[in-house]
Specification:
The structure holds two protein chains of two kinds. Chain A is of the alpha+beta class. Chain A is built from five helices and six strands, in the order E-H-E-E-H-E-H-E-E-H-H. Helix content of chain A is about 35%, strand content about 35%. Chain A has a six-stranded antiparallel β-sheet, with helices on both faces. By secondary structure, chain B is α/β, with parallel strands linked by helices. In chain B, the strands form four sheets. In chain B, strands 4-3-5-6-7-8-9-13-12-11-10 form an eleven-stranded mixed β-sheet. Chain B has a four-stranded mixed β-sheet with strand order 18-17-16-19. The chains are: A alpha+beta, B alpha/beta.
Chain lengths: ~140, ~425
């Protein structure tokens, strides 16, 4: 259920993002989802790719600073109020969302939200108990 | 100590202080006479001060003479300060000229012998023996480092690998295959080697390395700990500057409690760098050196720009020669930021104390709206990289707080990508001061 996410440190200077995506593209690695958090000096790029092990290896070879974290993906009906239900469940169970980002599935029926929690196991239990559809890892890495 | 103390020249290195002072006075008189007869620059200095070599009665009388500075060497470029005709000079070295012309120094055959002896002394003090294979990764050339250590090693009878600087891959291969046991390089290159050893998955214990003789740039105690742990060696410091001779002016013994200064060949004074006043024993200040035996290129009261302190207590190893503290930086390196004196080595120590932080840093000093700013660029690595922005920000804020506490002036910490700070196989460029441009 947990999805491997790759985080990459990038300096805020022109062309750096393209270098990361270039390295991945050259090695036949496909990006499934991404999000960028940034400050004026640097950014943290988070990626979900189809082959995270290989991505980690090739990025390290190119001297990028990388780390692996575990996140989960949840399918949310692409309709008003879809996200609120999920956030309320998490709130009740006392799990904190460190950050999240969303994209729409290819079929267009569902939005997929990637969550990073302070306590991922607790979050999974709470969501599962409340009938929320946590997407299997393969489903996300093969979107 | 489990290792027996070996002394290269027991008579000279353990000379009682009173006898040492008499020897210094005799040699100082000879040196003053030599320069008064042969070097126009010094003839002018004697005239200006009204002091003649014959007036020297005690070592203190030296204070009547003005200092010699790098500027004097520049004005007398290239051979104006030489005290012997060129036919007696057997070697020329030169120091890197960061601004303008380099400085040129010369050696007679006797000077080379003295230099060799003094390097053999500190290498022996650091534990190098004829059994050692000495890996010299200083660049061979005009720079004094490589040749100094080379001759000293040969005098001891150790096997020298004159690999020179650069090509870290090859350095490692040779280090492994030829079983190098003593490493000679700058401390920053020592860390570069440690990085590469780890990256290649080499177990440092599988190497024959056991001692490092690091010099040519100031480095902190924390850096020593890091070099010792990561390379599995004993890391020793040594000191020298080409204007005085090169390496061999001072070097640490196994007790690592300061570098024994070859006082039988050099007279050391500690002065206040601002007023030029000679400070009492034990004070921190700028080191000023007068050569006592050099023939080709004698130096009278040369301002080294290095900030240190001398300890005249007899060392546990038995040597009576004064011990010079690790240099705290150069007066040239000292940055005055918002009126506060800041040495790059202070910043290095703070960074070392932060868990996971590696010493790859650069300081950018700038001025905007008449206000100085200090930015410390630190290369990020996986130990100090956090996926969460909150933690990453917190890391930066904490580093900034620690720096402000130690330096007494605020500094901005900027994380940069690995290997983005320019690396030199030799000396590290630590400071970029944009205020002067």
């Amino acid at each position: 259920m947990k999805v491997e996410q790759i985080s990459i440190f990038i300096e805020n200077k022109s062309g750096r993002l393209a270098e990361v995506t270039g390295v991945l593209g050259d090695n036949g690695i496909n990006i499934r989802a991404l999000s960028l958090a940034d400050t004026s000096d640097f950014g943290i790029l988070r990626l979900i790719v189809d082959d995270s092990e290989k991505a980690l290896k090739v990025l390290r070879e190119q001297q990028f600073t990388v780390s692996i974290t575990h996140v989960i993906g949840v399918a949310v009906p692409d309709s008003p109020g879809g996200l609120t239900t999920i956030l309320q469940i998490l709130d009740k169970s006392g799990v904190n969302v460190e950050y999240m980002y969303a994209f729409v599935e290819r079929s267009g029926d569902n939005a997929v939200i990637i969550f990073r929690f302070d306590d991922i196991d607790e979050a999974i239990t709470a969501l599962a108990n409340n009938g929320i559809n946590i997407l299997p890892s393969e489903r996300i890495t093969s979107i | 100590m489990d290792v027996p103390v070996k002394i290269w020249n027991r008579e000279a290195e353990c000379l009682p202080r009173e006898e040492l002072r008499q020897l210094q006075l005799k040699r100082l008189q000879q040196t003053l006479t030599l320069v008064a007869n042969n070097v126009p620059c010094y003839q002018a200095k004697f005239k200006e001060s009204g002091f003649q070599p014959g007036d020297l009665k005690t070592l203190k009388d030296l204070q009547h003479l003005p200092f010699t500075s790098k500027e004097d060497l520049r004005v007398n470029y290239p051979y104006g300060m030489f005290a012997v005709p060129m036919r007696e000079v057997v070697r020329i070295h030169s120091s890197s000229g960061t601004t303008g012309k380099p400085t040129v120094v010369g050696y007679t055959k006797a000077d080379i012998n003295t230099w060799t002896e003094l390097v053999a002394r500190f290498m022996t003090a650091a534990g190098v023996t004829p059994e050692d294979i000495v890996h010299i990764a200083f660049g061979y050339g005009l720079f004094t480092g490589a040749f100094g250590l080379h001759y000293g090693s040969e005098a001891i009878g150790a096997s020298v690998i004159p690999i020179s600087g650069g090509n870290t891959e090859k350095q490692l291969m040779i280090m492994q295959d030829y079983r190098s046991s003593a490493l000679v390089c700058t401390p920053s290159y020592g860390l570069t080697l440690a990085d590469r050893i780890e990256k290649q998955g080499i177990d440092p214990r599988s190497l024959a390395l056991r001692v490092g003789l690091f010099g040519a740039e100031p480095w902190s105690e924390q850096m020593r700990v890091e070099l010792e742990q990561r390379l599995g060696i004993l890391a020793t410091d040594n000191y020298g500057l080409s204007e005085i001779m090169g390496p061999g002016v001072a070097g640490e013994c196994l007790f690592k409690q300061g570098m024994h200064l070859a006082e039988d060949h050099f007279l050391a004074e500690i002065i206040d760098p601002d007023t030029g006043e000679v400070l009492p024993d034990g004070s921190v200040g700028e080191l000023v050196i007068t050569s006592l035996t050099k023939q080709a290129f004698p130096m009278i009261r040369y301002r080294t720009r290095d900030i240190t302190r001398l300890n005249y207590a007899v060392c546990e190893c038995g040597r009576t020669l004064a011990r010079m503290e690790k240099t705290r930086g150069r007066t040239d390196d000292m940055l005055i930021i918002k009126g506060v004196n800041v040495f790059p080595t202070q910043i290095e120590e703070v960074l070392f104390q932060i868990e996971g932080c590696e010493p790859h840093y650069q300081l950018i000093v700038d001025r905007a709206n008449n206000m100085d700013s200090l930015e410390v660029q630190v290369e990020v690595n996986e130990n100090i990289f956090f996926d969460e922005m909150k933690q990453q920000r917190q890391f930066v804020v904490q580093a900034e707080k620690r720096l402000a506490t130690v330096l007494g002036v605020s500094a901005k910490v900027k994380l940069v990508e690995p290997a983005s700070i320019t690396r030199h196989e030799g000396k590290a460029v630590r400071v970029i001061d944009r205020r002067q441009q």
